[in-house]
Design a protein that fits this description.
The protein is an alpha/beta fold. It is 26% helix and 17% strand.
């Protein structure tokens, strides 16, 4: 027996390492097969949100942009981007990047924008960026590094203009060499809520920063940074910081010596103690012009101690306050103490800040104010009247009062009527409703916005001086207001069914009437606006009639006037073109010339009817119809048995023109015979008042035989024809020979009308008696006729 040798530990490890290498190679080969197919005509490839674990293969030298954001890439390998020699934009944000090979970006000499934000990088290497000579924008925010590294990270990036760095979790120190090599920046953003160390002079090497965003909460560190920015930063933006006391605010003192022109405060907390100190520092900055406060909080009631000391040569000109939360705004005082700050301000915006009153004394101190925006606040008409007291805002040109609680248009106009320089007024999104017939307004008002104010009808309250009027989003049904100077009218989202009357607004240049109930407009309406340059009538329910389509599709130059043409101009009816663009809609000939088509159809119908009448006359259709009706009536009657008693021996059918022969010869001969024959004559025996057809049918049915006196006159008589037909019905329906033909005169067969087809048939199949002109033969004729009348089974041959 052979001894089995156990594998030693070294062999097991060798096998395991070999397996892991093979698995890694297979995994890498599989990863390299990932391809990004989404490249546009400009060779920008969007591979975002594709769950990629590596940079996909297939990158060519033509690619100029590559978006790999929102994937799961962990490693940027040395050869991943070797063909990206023409790459201008590389976006790798929101991945899991932990490792970047030192030569990963060596081929990207033309790269201008690199975004590595929100990854897992724990350290940064200057080797990555040493060949990125064209780089202008770099974002390395939101990673896990603590510092920017031991060596200058950006020293080779001579063209860098936009830099975003730091994080809010671990970034804690800025060192003096961190910004070496950077001379000019358009924008620098530092994210460092945990930043506790800043070496003085770190940013002093940067000669110019147009806009710096500092997101830190340590006021001490901020003060050191501001010291380095005294001679370089034009716009400073502070985020997420609190100034609770005057001492904390004093740490902003470096700003008073800076060249800063604008300060932006976002999500900053102030108190009554700190706000005056901050303002006194700012007004000392000789070039400082603009203050902007966004989404911030002021804890206090405005009871500030001390005055603002203003240097008239460097006073603030622009103040913007948006969404400033004043927790006890209803207790806020009259802003005493800030009056000295207001004199040089030319533009003020206070939006969404619960302003319900501007004290008259404060309004009067705005002696240079040109623009005032108090939109999205709580101003009501009585408070506006107080705020706009005599002497308030003497130079004001533009006033925005939209989305407040105004409700009396006449009172609003009267409150502002003393503002002689006011030209632009926005009082939209208030709740005016019905408006009076007369109002007072500033004498030079040119622009008025009263959109979204629930106005059902415009009156002469609207000032005649206007050049621009916005009445959109109301409930107007028409526009019949005379405004001789009006150049622009915005009346979208109302209920107008036609264009406004041009004679009322003769100088109109631009009209927006989209989203109304407009169904069409025509050459006369459109042409009446002689100065019209822009017409926006889209998003209406157009009735695409032939006249409308003919005008709008073929009117010269109309496409240059219509805004949003053709995509916003859609047919609502007729159903054949519903949903189609007006530009492409086509109607049928019938739809476009309905009157002509109906006329032609009517003429055609008349011609057909006339043709049928003529044809019926020629073919005796009416006669046949009458005959058919009579026959149907006769068929409805119950059939009589062969053995019933007859009232007459014979019914005589003859023409009225042959009555002399019938009545004077035949009747006398037969009724005076021995035994006498009883004949039925229509003159004598028909029932008065009864329909003649019924008389004929009844007489034939009550007679044993029917005598037909044939002549030229007979075949011209319709009633004779009826009698012949009914007799023929009886002949075939009752299967007997009831007809006796007497030929009073010779008749040529071709002279018998075609409608006498039965007569033709009977004459061809039965023997008839012929009236002889020879008197000797006449006795034989009477004998044969009497014999035929007596015969009940055989017709005389």
């Amino acid at each position: 027996m052979l001894n089995q040798r156990k594998p030693n530990t070294k062999q097991i490890w060798q096998v395991w390492i070999f397996y892991m290498v093979i698995s890694a190679n297979r995994s890498e080969e599989k990863a390299t097969t990932q391809v990004c197919p989404s490249c546009d005509a400009t060779h920008f490839c969007d591979c975002s949100s594709m769950d990629l674990s590596t940079i996909p293969s297939g990158l060519t030298t033509d690619v100029t942009g590559l978006n790999l954001s929102y994937n799961s890439i962990e490693h940027v390998r040395e050869n991943d981007l070797k063909l990206g020699v023409n790459l201008r934009v590389l976006l790798l944000q929101f991945n899991q990047v932990r490792t970047i090979d030192k030569d990963s970006f060596i081929f990207l000499g033309n790269l201008e924008h690199l975004d590595l934000s929100n990854n897992k990088l724990t350290h940064l290497s200057p080797i990555w960026f040493r060949h990125l000579f064209s780089l202008q924008q770099l974002n390395i925010q939101g990673n896990l590094y603590i510092t920017l590294g031991e060596n200058p990270l950006f020293s080779n990036l001579k063209n860098l203009r936009y830099l975003h760095l730091g994080n809010n979790n671990s970034f804690s120190a800025i060192q003096k060499q961190d910004f070496d090599g950077i001379v000019v920046l358009e924008q620098l953003e530092i994210d460092g809520q945990r930043l506790r160390k800043y070496e003085s002079g770190s940013l002093a090497t940067v000669n110019s920063i147009n806009h710096i965003i500092i997101n830190i909460n340590d006021v001490q560190v901020l003060s050191v940074i501001l010291e380095d920015l005294i001679n370089s930063a034009i716009c400073i933006e502070l985020r997420n910081i609190a100034f609770n006391t005057a001492n904390e605010s004093s740490l902003l003192e470096p700003m008073s010596r800076s060249i800063m022109k604008k300060l932006v405060l976002k999500n900053v907390l102030f108190t009554d103690e700190s706000v005056i100190r901050v303002l006194n520092i700012l007004v000392q900055a000789k070039q400082f012009l603009e203050l902007q406060v966004d989404d911030s909080v002021l804890r206090g009631t405005g009871k500030w101690h001390g005055q603002i000391e203003v240097n008239r040569e460097s006073a603030i000109e622009v103040i913007t306050v948006q969404k400033l939360a004043i927790e006890q705004f209803y207790l806020f005082s009259d802003l005493h103490g800030v009056e000295n700050l207001l004199g040089n301000i030319t533009k003020t915006t206070v939006v969404n800040t619960n302003v319900f009153l501007v004290p008259c004394s404060i309004s009067r101190h705005f002696s240079s104010l040109l623009y005032l925006d108090l939109s999205e606040n709580l101003l009501a008409d009585p408070n506006l009247e107080h705020s706009s007291c005599k002497g308030a805002w003497p130079l004001l040109q533009t006033f925005n009062l939209s989305q407040n609680t105004l409700g009396d248009l006449e009172m609003t106009g009267r409150s502002l009527s003393h503002l002689k320089h006011l030209t632009h007024l926005d009082i939209s999104r208030n709740n005016f409703g019905e408006i009076p017939g007369l109002c007072q307004w500033p004498e030079n008002l040119k622009y008025l916005n009263i959109s979204g104010t629930q106005i059902p009808k415009l009156t002469t309250c609207i000032p005649q001086t206007l050049e621009v009027l916005d009445v959109s989003s109301n409930i107007l049904n028409d526009f019949r207001l005379k405004l001789p100077h009006l150049k622009e009218l915005y009346i979208a989202k109302n209920k107008l069914k036609t264009l406004p009357d041009a004679p009322f607004i003769p100088n109109l240049v631009a009209l927006r009437i989209s989203r109304n109930k407009l169904t069409s407009f025509f050459k006369e309406e459109f042409g009446s606006f002689r100065k019209m340059e822009t017409l926006d009538a889209g998003d209406n329910n157009f009735i695409c009639s032939c006249e409308f389509l003919s005008f709008i599709q073929y009117q010269e130059g109309i496409a240059n006037v219509l805004a949003n043409w053709p995509e916003n101009y859609i047919c609502d009816s007729p159903s054949s073109v519903r949903g189609q663009q007006v530009k492409a809609a086509q109607l049928s000939l019938f739809e476009c010339h309905r009157t002509l088509a109906v006329s032609l159809i009517c003429i055609l119908v008349v011609l057909i009817i006339l043709f049928i009448v003529i044809l019926g006359y020629k073919l005796h259709v009416i006669w046949y119809m009458k005959m058919t009706w009579a026959w149907l009536q006769a068929k409805r009657k119950p059939r009589k048995s062969h053995n019933h008693d007859f009232c007459y021996d014979a019914f005589v059918s003859y023409s009225e023109r042959d009555s002399e022969w019938v009545e004077n010869l035949m009747v006398q001969e037969l009724e005076n015979a021995i035994p006498p024959f009883k004949l039925c004559l229509h003159k004598r025996d028909f029932v008065p008042g009864k329909w003649i057809v019924d008389n004929i049918i009844d007489s034939i049915e009550k007679s044993h035989k029917t005598l037909f006196v044939l002549s030229e006159h007979f075949v011209q008589s319709e009633w004779c024809k009826y009698e012949l037909e009914f007799s023929h019905f009886r002949l075939f329906d009752e299967h007997n020979d009831a007809a006796i033909l007497i030929l009073l005169e010779p008749i040529e067969e071709q002279t018998i009308p075609k409608r006498f087809c039965k007569l033709r048939k009977i004459m061809n199949t039965k023997t008839y008696l012929e009236w002889p002109l020879d008197e000797n033969q006449q006795q034989i004729f009477w004998k044969n006729l009497k014999t035929a009348l007596k015969s009940y089974d055989v017709i005389l041959g």
